[in-house]
Amino acid sequence: MTDAMNDPAPNDSASNHPTSDDASLADRPAAGPFVLRDYALVADGERGALIDPRGQIAWLCAPAWHSGAVFSGLLGGPGGYQVCPADPWNVWGGYYEDGTLIRVSRWVTADGIVSCREALATPAGTGRAVLLRQVRAERGEAVVDVDLDVRADFGRHAMTDLRAQPDGVWRAHTGPLHVRFTGAERARPGADGGLRTRIRLPEGGTHDLVLEIADEPQDGPLDPRRLWDDTERWWRSAVPDCADTAAPRDTRMAYAVLNGLTSSAGGMVAAATTSLPERADTGRDYDYRYAWVRDQCYAGVAVAAHGPHRLLERAVRFVADRLLEDGAQLRPAYTVYGEPLPPERSLPLVGYPGGHDRTGNHAGGQFQLDVFGEALQLFAAAARHDLLDGRAAKAAVVAADAVAERWAEPDAGLWELDTRWWTHSRLCCVVGLRELVEATRGSRSPEWSRLSAEWSRLADRLLDATRARCLHPDGHWQRAEDDPGPEGALLLPLARGAVPQDDDSLALTREQVARQLSDDGYVYRFRHDDGPLGDAEGAFLLCGFTMALAAHAQGRDLEAMRWFERTRAACGSPGLFAEEYDVAQRQLRGNLPQGFVHALLLECSARFGATGD
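Below the sequence we write its predicted structure tokens.
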């Protein structure tokens, strides 16, 4: 800290412009949320926080991803943690430090430039979140207001037992959680139980704030310099250089996001948020703070396309553990710790505009056949890097046996819709069986050789049956046995070898998707009705990247790069991707950030860069 002044009285004027009033966060009328493209993320693998342009932590669930939110302003909940210039006449911007989720928010005011460096400290513990914020006066004097009001369980619990220690550390409780806060020695408690202070810095000065939220009382030091050093070191070890990829900086960002979403227990959440609408007032808003097996496999396969990495090892461990525990009854999604998902329930919050407020997810009880095929593809990718250990090999056998047992059953499919005979599910299993056979071809085990022969025959039988039931008379693959429409998801198993690259069905299916499911260079999942594509939902960014992979598989490299570049441009200014993109309004839709979109960006960049395209 350099010459900072902690001022308990925020009414004095820092310039000729008006400053913030003296109301605490809970006492003020709730400010409206921002469009999704404006939010930045800091994450440590165990939880993630969204930061808005006002310097507000708009969302943070603690101590775990699926815990109740301690800052729930994104959904209209009370409380929050804001660090921003006292002068409201400012313009916000910011950036990530390359290859990290260390965020620098930046405001240009009438009199200077103020920044706030922000991160969740790493390496992280499962029961303890540490949020680092470092204010800096980049040009001119900085006058910054700080508001802290931690409210556990989606705002149900205000801070209690708030007290300042002799060393200047504030302590409090919020529900079952323990709070410590440093850097605000002269803060003033508000009537609602929150804290407020004002910080003054001369030009070039810095000031550190450290917030700890834990499920057990903590007594160790909260040394900001050591915490920052450890965090910087962790990110340097977590993200490779990526100079050999088609888009090195974006690929490093994808690695950072995937690391930030992946727990030390191995599970990777689909997204950091819940209840952000895909389309206003349609009811399609879900809780994605859980680990989908499919998404985990996408991430592992994408990383494997670039090289071995701890994300691949964690994905293999998590998926193997779930298969060995649940076998053919594998659930599509779990908590990051491998537990069943809670049922859906509503929250007493306003909700993001156009959405509902809900937690839990019904997908945890579905049968989705394709997850077994995706798991086999993940294990094959691990085998190619000599990472298929004995436990994962046993899990691969379990997955293959599950395909043999259940491939003829109707399933909910990757979009979690009606139970039907979905084409995508079967083609994914064909790919998984064949890739595992190919990746383990050198095994000297007679038993493994016998199993490989069985899996090859099963893949052929499954493909023949699917071709008989789901290949359209015109030669392209259709969505399901009873649905002749095109389907963007089919491009991924086709790109990965469900059929030979010169098979007419690959080219014809891609042509159908490009003609019927794309608009202005963006790709949609499927048609909901006969109206314009964008009326029902946004373009699905996963499908844009799979279109690029399918074009690449056909040897159409220039076209593949066009799809890739168009899709990777559909992010917010922080560089984060949501699930969908509203083409007409150029807005992000759905939960944020969506892990599988970042995974497919990484895979495309790795595969295209490796061939010099």
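The radius of gyration is 25 Å.
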